[in-house]
Amino acid sequence: MKTLSMHCLMGLLLVAAAFALTGCSSYNNLSRSYVSGTEYYNSTYRGLTHGQIVSEYGAPDREVSDGADGYILVYETYHTSSHVDYMGFVDHSVRKSYIQFFMDRHGVCYNVKTNKLAPGQADEAVAAVAISTGLITGLSTLGFLTMMVPIMIHM
User: Fold this and answer.
1) Are 137 and 72 members of one domain?
2) Could you give the number of structural domains in the chain?
3) Which string of DSSP letters, residue by residue, matches the chain?
4) Which of 131, 114, 112, 115 is nearest to 31 (CA)?
5) Which of 7, 77, 85, 138 lies 20 to 30 Å (CA to CA) from residue 98?
6) Quick one: pLDDT at residue 26?
7) For residue 17, with 0-12 CB atoms within 10 Å meaning exposed, 13-18 middle and 19 or more buried, which class applies?
8) Which domain holds residue 101?
9) Residue 126: its pLDDT value, please?
10) What is the pLDDT of residue 64?
11) Residues 105 and 49 occupy one common structural domain
12) Among 100, 97, 122, which residue's Cα sits nearest to residue 111?
């Protein structure tokens, strides 16, 4: 009877270890393919004219000096969200996303700063959280079983 339960426990440990290792490799592959929003927007919009940017984004929320001979087109969006936690408390949050196009004196974009993700990166960010959650679950299961095996053997 002890050998049968020992085989079952070892099998469970191997399954938990497999989940943990799969989560690690999936997360590493995902993070290697990540492109920051700033890199993406710079490669896409650097060199475009004021008119081209305004035709795509519309009028900026504001226009400010860049401290030299140029100016910055500033676009801002505020996102509000609310949720009720398991205790019934309501959590309200406001997040500002922005994109700033730095224009030279000729009206040509020379730099872009943003806190936005590159298109398609939002889905990968959600996947990274899911993979991380799977990794934590796998490691927690592995830790729990590692703790329980000696207890169950001595019963």
Assistant:
1) no
2) 2
3) -HHHHHHHHHHHHHHHHHHHHHHHHHHHHHHHT---HHHHHHHHHTT-BHHHHHHHH-S-SEEEE-SSS-EEEEEEEEEEEEEE-TTS-EEEEEEEEEEEEEE-TTSBEEEEEESSPPTTHHHHHHHHHHHHHHHHHHHHHHHHHHHHHHHHHT-
4) 131
5) 85
6) 45
7) middle
8) 36-117
9) 47
10) 96
11) yes
12) 100
Report how far residue 96's alpha carbon sits from residue 91's, in angstroms, rounded to the nearest whole number.
17
Rg (CA), the chain: 25
pLDDT tens track, the chain, 155 positions: 455 566 666 666 665 555 555 544 444 444 445 567 888 999 999 999 999 999 999 999 999 999 989 999 999 998 888 888 778 888 888 888 899 999 999 999 999 999 888 887 664 444 445 455 555 555 555 555 555 555 555 55
